[in-house]
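Support reply, case 0932

Customer input (verbatim):
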Amino acid sequence: MSAIMWCATLVCISALVTCVSTAGILYPRESESREVKSLDGMWNFRLSLPDPLVGFKERWYMKDLSKTGPVLQMPVPSSYNDVMVDKKIRDHVGLVWYDKSFFAPESWRQQGYRVFLRFGSVNYAAQVWVNTHLVLNHEIGHLPFQRDITANLKFGRLNRITVAVDNVLLATTVPQGSLQNISTNTGPKTIQTYTFDFFNYAGIHRSVFLYTTPVVYIDDVDVTTNYTEDSVGLINYKIQYGGSLSSGETLNCSITVLNNENVREKFTVITDDEEGLSGIIKIENAKLWWPYLMHEEPGYMYTLEIRLSTTWNVDDVYRLPVGIRTIKWTNTAFLINNKPAYLRGFGRHEDSDIRGKGMDYALVTRDYDLIKWIGANSYRTSHYPYAEEIMDFADRHGIMIVDECPSVDTDNFSDKLLKKHTTSLAELIKRDKNRPSVIMWSIANEPRSHHKEADSYFKYVVEFVKSKDKTRPVTAALNKWYSIDRAGQHLDIIGFNRYNAWYTLPGHTEIIQSRIEDEAAKWHAKHNKPVFMTEYGADSYAGLHMSPSFVWSEEYQVELMSEHFKAFDTLRTKNFFIGEMIWNFADFKTEQTVTRVGGNKKGVFTRQREPKSSAYHLRKRYWALANQLDGAQLPCNIKSYVIDNDGQNNVEL
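Our regenerated output:
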C-alpha cells in the first residue's frame, strides 16, 4: 500500500469510529438564548508534502500551523483547488491542513453556555482539533457535523482550531474512486481517478460556526404536516432535548406559531405528553406551501417558535421555518396538496469559478433568480447534498427538490460501502427532513444496477430510507437499460438518464422522439410506477454558431431539446410521466479529458451564469408548461417584439 493510501485509510478509519449520531443537527440560529459566531474568513493552509503523513508525524495540531513551515492564506468557505494559480495545489491528492485562531468570550463561561463547533461540509474526510485536543472525525463530504467543545475551550483567551482534510476517494468511499501510481520525469506520483463527470473539489466548503446553547437545550425537531378539507393546517411535532436535568428539576416546552410576516398566528396545540415535547398544532385558514408558479403565493413559510423551560436553567428558544404541504404518489402520478405536479427543472452542480464548491450567497441568489426567470419549479441536487443555505432559498421560493445523496456510479458493492452509503442518507435525512421543498430522496445517480448484487444492495438502501422517512417517495437516476436494471423494482418513482443523439448517434436528432417515448413507456410497463427524465442534453460551446446545426453548436443544443420536448408532450398524455429535467443548469468543471473543453458544457447557462440560446428556448418551454398546466401568467418579455399583428401595413409598389 502506498503511503498516501495508508494516510487516506488512516483518516477514514478514524472517521468511522464515530457512528451516526443520534443527536440533532439543527442549523445554527441566533435567538434570545443562543449566540452564533462565524469562523468564516482567511485560514492558514498548507499541503502535506512531500510525506503525506508528515503532519501526523510532526504533530502539526500541537502548535500554530505557521510554526510548522510556510503557510498560505485560504478563504473559508471555498474549495482550495482553484483559488491559487499553483497547479500543485489544484491537483493535490491527499491531506491538507488548515488552522484558525479565535477568541471565546468570557461571558459565555459566566453564563454557563454550552459551545458547539459546527462545520457545514468538509470534503472528503476531516479530523478536527481544538487547542490540541482531537474533538471531531467525519467522513463523507457535503454534510454537516458538530461537537460540544465547551470543555476544550479557553474562555476569555485565544483558541485554535486545526483541521486535517483528506480528498482521497477509494472503492469504499461515497462517492467511489481509486488511486493510481504513475511514473513521471521526477519519479513516481500518485494520482486520483474516478468515473463521475465532475471535478473532485476539496476543502472546507461551507461555513464554520461556533454557537451557544443553555445547559438544557433544544437538540432536534421532527415535523410532518397535513391539512383538513376545511383549511385547518396540521403540524405534528416532536422535540428532542439535550443536556441533563438536575434531581427534582422539571421541564416544559411551549410553541408559538408566527406567519411569514413574523406575526403571531392563531393556533391551538394538543400535546401528547405532560412536558409538551410532542403534539399537534392546528392553524385555521392555513396557507399551504406551494411550488413556484403553481400558486400566486408560492413557498409560504410559518415559523415555529419553540421555547424549552426548566426549573433552574435559562430557557432555550429555537425558531424553525415550516411549510404546510402534503405529498402523495400513485402508480401514475405525483401530487402536491392533492394536485398533480409536473416537474420542470434541471440537474445542477455546486460549481463556480475560483470558489469551486464553496458556498457563496451572491452566486446562490443569482442561481435562484435564473431558475425563476426560466420558469423552472424543481431541480435535483446532483450528485450530493447542497448547502443548507441553498436549501433555505428553495423553501422560501417554492422550488421542489429531489434530494440526492453522494452515491455516484455506485459499483463494487460491499458491506462496507453499504454502511457508508446508508450513513450518508441517514445524515441527509436528519438534516433535511423538515424542509417542505424536499419532495423525494434520490439514493444514487447512474449506479451499476445491472449487476446481480445491485438487487439486494438497493433493496436494503430503500428499506433503510423508508425506516427514516415514509412521507416522501424514493427515487434514483438510472441509466442501465430497463431490461437489465435491478434497482428500479425497489423505487417508488423511476428516474432515468439518456443521451440520445449525443453519446448515442451524435448528430442524429431524428432518433430522439421515438426512443424516449419507447423507453419511458417500458420503464412504466415493467414497474407500474411514475416515470420522469432526470437527465438529457448536449454540450454547446457558448458563441459557436453553425447552420445547419452541428454538434457542440448552440443551434444543435436547441434542436436536440426540441426533439425531447416532442417526446415529453406525447408522454404527458400517457398519464404516467411526471417531469423533465435537463442536464445541466450551468456549465461546470470536470477532470481533465480530451472529451471536455474546460469542463462539461451541457449547461443552458455558462459557468459564469450567462444564458446560451438554449436558455431562452427552455424558458419558452417551461413558462408554456406553467401556463398550460397551472394557469401561470406568461411574462411580458417571453418573446421579443417583431410585428403588430393587429395593425395594417399598406405598401405601394
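We compared this against your earlier run and they match. Two observations from our side: Residues 1-19 have pLDDT under 50 and may be disordered. The first helix runs from residue 3 to 17. Please reopen the case if you see a mismatch on your end.
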